[in-house]
Design goal:
14 strands; 14-stranded antiparallel β-sheet
Length: 270
Amino acid sequence: MNKRIIVVLLFSISFFVFGFSEFYNYSSVPLNQKKIEVGEEITYVVKYLSFEIGEIKLVVQKEQVAGKDTLYSAIAYINSYEGIPFVDLHQIYETKFDVKQISHYFKGSILSDDTTYTVYHFDKIKNNIHIHKGRKRANEIWTDSTAVYDRDYQDGLSLFYFARMMTGQQKKIDVPVFINEKYEKTYINFYKDVEDMDIDAVDYDIACVRLDGETEFRGIFGLTGYFEGWFSNDEYAVPIVAKMQVLIGSITLELKEWKKKGWMPPKYQD
């Protein structure tokens, strides 16, 4: 199994979302229609062809007040399975976002004998994004710079939660994303029709709403830009299944297990 296939998982989760003209106006975000639950843990198995190659676990860690903002802290763990030839991949991605899922902080770490990291601080007051990149063990800094903060942005992980909060609508939008130290867009299509989806974790069909979309750029190691996902048709909009195209074909993420106060995927009704 080629290591490139595993590395693309970072952006697979980032693009677990869906597209049209103007940049999205965050002032129009409908609040309180969907819920972010502190303590939520959701785990996905990653499949390529008939192979299970790794897992992704997402955790909403805490909610805190910072100045005039209420911020949510979330983290994603990406790990390849043991025994896959030539692959030993472990990555951690962290985000802090407000009630409109606008990013305030992002950190990505690639764990190894000498872990590398990328940090973005989004500062609305100073109108800049502070970029910090380096290598921990060697105490080496590659980048210490700023970029102009000219509008509200998503990072690769906050985009995942933004998509969840917007599901169940018939809408097309563009979402500004700051990723790879560049200003980019993700084109998002939301659909309100309820569809059925089945996974191994439950013995019934799940009621879902679908979304799909495309990025205007090619992701690392061959992500071609197209993605689609199915989210639970309830107040939590838990991602159930996602599919995305990469250079070598299609990768699937499937909900494997979860820790949510009494939650079960909603049953599909004919």
